[in-house]
Write a structure and sequence with these properties.
With 643 residues, this protein is α/β, with parallel strands linked by helices. Helices cover 33% and strands 24% of the residues. It has 21 helices and 31 strands. Helix 6 crosses helix 10. The protein binds 5'-O-[(S)-ethoxy(hydroxy)phosphoryl]adenosine.
Length: 643
């Protein structure tokens, strides 16, 4: 019965290893025919003229060229005839005593239309950028979908980012509209989002409207003419009697959203995804990796402020008519059994979380796991960073009770959706390996010179040689930066920035970033951006950031700082951390700050990060060749002062 439903609903879901191999083969040999067939499963206002047009040199990548659609018709309208009463979003509060909320597809449709009309009433038009800075409440999903409904471009900013970080992003996108909350609940904390926005807007006078949803009842200041309450605006729409909101007709390659991510340079870049390709890719990967079956409850623990939430809480599941569980809080509140409690409460079938959460929960022992049933679980997922074998086995054994496959999904903000992963119960899992590419994904490993490394049992830098529908199209307002960052290191290849090895069976294992980007608790942080923030603290002359292995966060942040004048080290360390929190957000706070009199540099002035990394890792025995350093004696001083 379920199988029949799947076949009807998801004809593009591969069911066996043989089907995976056949789909993969076809996607490489006849990519256009392959994706045209997949795209039959969506609702289009007009079909495409050409499936794919591309070159990686500009880059120019166009999928389903000439097609017209609206992604919200695919996420909402088209499910109404059969699934109006199916839960679309189930929301669980931060506070376990507060009632959960379920929105069926009909209810979600109504809410999205209503808020889309609010946006319109306030002058938001197709192509306008709307910044969304909210906690994890259903209105966050509703606001993103409402933007998509009217063709406005959403730029969701994670609720942990600081005023300065918001201001940079608002300016880069020239976003004139903001949707926010008075505050957000996260664990025991109540984060005053609106006041952070107020601070950001001191440097963004071009912002015309701030729509504020009341969640925490924290008192906020409302600027006349600019700041308005969500609830009041909904009342106006109700009074106007505008129940529906027609879906704007979008071109396949119109921008759906911008999502900022840290890179190797100081300034975050606005990764751009477009309507048709992103929709097809998130849907295809959702249905295939998790092997979603109608009726299942899918719980992705990410925040919608990150790409994982965009793709696997909102667009992937909803485009598939699935039930997506959204959780406002944190895994350790009120205790470290919260995820497991939610799994039992809603009979969650698919749990998708990050290694950092698993490692953190592991550290609390098994008492809060073993008093739960967890019997509804069928598939476990991991995302955001390499999962170490210990965490993998703990997850598989204690949470999955050795009966659930673990899908280790490798992908990036830029890839829109999962590129390399096993498919639950279809292709085998292997601890700490993302395993095999999805149909449509053609990975290759290259050496430093860009030479492709053939065969198995090899390692190199991970590139992709052919576009998939969800690939980044540009970086907002700066196409050259997109070309330089991803398409210029190796000719005709998309460069991921990750190192990787391929085992004897062709399975891929991602070993971590090979560029100046750290991955701290699954969050990407560019070292240059962090150094800028530290250098802005008065008295800091120069700094260098490296990562070091951290039991829970995966990578910790180690800062080497040249600081001028007398100082109380403990106090200055605190102030430097506060300065980073102010410039970027608490997620980027350094774990260790070592004061140094100089940084090891080559004669050409380049910081030798390799040496700093070794010292931070506590591996000072063999620092390699230091003879090219301007001042080799510095190394001894830094070694002695290591924390
Ligand atoms: C890392 C998150 C190993 C990787 C979806 C990548 C992973 C960066 C995995 C992207 C995984 C993500 N195994 N590493 N399963 N998933 N990464 O843009 O270094 O926040 O380049 O996207 O996270 O992080 P981003």
């Amino acid at each position: 019965m379920v199988r029949n439903l799947c076949v009807m609903k998801y004809p593009h879901q591969v069911k066996t290893l043989a089907e995976y191999k056949a789909a993969y083969d076809k996607s490489v040999k006849e990519p256009e025919a392959f994706w045209a067939k997949v795209a039959e499963n969506f609702s289009w206002k007009k079909k495409w003229d050409k499936v794919l047009d591309w070159n990686f040199s500009e880059p120019k990548i166009e999928w389903f060229k000439g097609a017209k659609l609206n992604i919200t018709e695919n996420c909402l309208d088209r499910h109404l005839p059969t699934d109006a009463n199916t839960p679309a979003i189930i929301w669980e509060s931060n506070n376990p005593k507060e009632a959960s909320i379920t929105y069926t597809y009909q209810q979600l449709y109504d809410k999205v239309c209503q808020f889309a009309n609010v946006l319109k009433n306030n002058g938001v038009k197709k192509g306008d950028r709307v910044c969304i800075y909210m906690g994890m409440i259903p209105e966050l999903a509703i606001a993103t979908l409402a933007c998509a409904r009217i063709g406005a471009i959403h730029s969701v900013i994670f609720g942990g980012f600081s005023a300065q970080a918001i201001s940079d992003r608002l300016q880069d996108a020239n976003a004139e509209f903001i949707v926010t909350c008075d505050g957000a609940f996260r664990g025991a904390k109540d984060i005053p989002l609106k006041s952070v926005i107020d601070e950001a807007l001191k440097t963004c006078v071009f912002v015309k409207k701030v729509i504020v949803y009341k969640r925490t009842n924290t008192s906020v200041s409302m600027k006349a003419d600019r700041d308005i309450w969500w609830y009041d605006e909904i009342k106006k729409v109700e009074a106007q009697g505008n129940a529906a909101c027609p879906a704007e007709e979008m071109d396949a390659e119109d921008i759906l959203f911008i999502l900022y991510t840290s890179g190797s340079t100081g300034k975050p870049k606005g990764v751009v995804h477009t309507c048709a390709g992103y929709m097809v890719w998130t849907n295809y990967t959702f249905v295939n990796v998790f092997q979603y079956k109608p009726g299942q409850i899918h719980f992705c623990t990410a925040d919608i402020g990150w790409i994982t939430g965009h793709s696997y809480i909102v667009y992937g599941p909803l485009s598939a008519g699935a039930t997506s569980l959204m959780f406002e809080g944190v895994p350790t509140y009120p205790d470290a059994g919260r995820f497991w409690e939610i799994v039992d409460k809603f009979k969650v079938n698919i749990l998708y979380t990050a290694p950092t959460a698993i490692r953190s929960l592991m550290s609390f022992g098994l008492d809060l796991v073993n008093n739960k049933k967890l019997s509804s679980l069928e598939v476990l997922g991991s995302v955001g960073e390499p999962i170490n074998e210990e965490a993998w086995h703990w997850y598989h054994t204690n949470i999955g009770k050795e009966k659930c496959p673990v899908v280790d999904t490798w992908w990036q903000t830029e890839t829109g959706g999962i590129l390399i992963s096993n498919l639950a119960n279809v292709t085998p899992h292997k601890p700490s390996f993302a395993t095999l590419p999805l149909p449509g994904v053609q990975p290759c490993l290259v050496d430093e010179q860009g030479k492709v490394i053939e065969g198995n049992n090899v390692s190199g830098n991970l590139c992709i040689k052919f576009p998939w529908p969800g690939i980044i199209r540009t970086t907002y307002n700066d196409h050259e930066r997109c070309r330089q960052t991803y398409f210029s290191t190796y000719k005709n290849l998309y460069f991921t920035g990750d190192g990787c090895l391929r085992d004897e069976e062709g399975n891929y294992r991602i070993t971590g970033r090979v560029d100046d980007v750290l991955n701290v608790s699954g969050h990407r942080i560019g070292t240059a951006e962090l150094e800028n923030a530290i250098n802005s603290y008065t008295g800091v002359i120069e700094s260098a950031i490296v990562g070091y292995p951290h039991d829970i966060k995966g990578q910790g942040i180690y800062a080497y700082v040249i600081y001028d004048g007398d100082h109380d080290h403990a106090e200055t360390r605190k102030e430097i951390a506060a300065s980073v929190t102010k410039m970027i957000g608490a997620i980027a706070k350094p774990d260790k700050v070592q004061f140094v009199s100089g940084l090891p540099k080559t004669r050409s002035g380049k910081i030798m990060r390799r040496i700093l990394r070794k010292i931070a890792e506590g591996d000072t025995g063999n620092l390699g060749d230091t003879s090219t350093l301007l001042d080799p004696s510095l190394v001894d001083e830094i070694k002695k002062g290591a924390l």
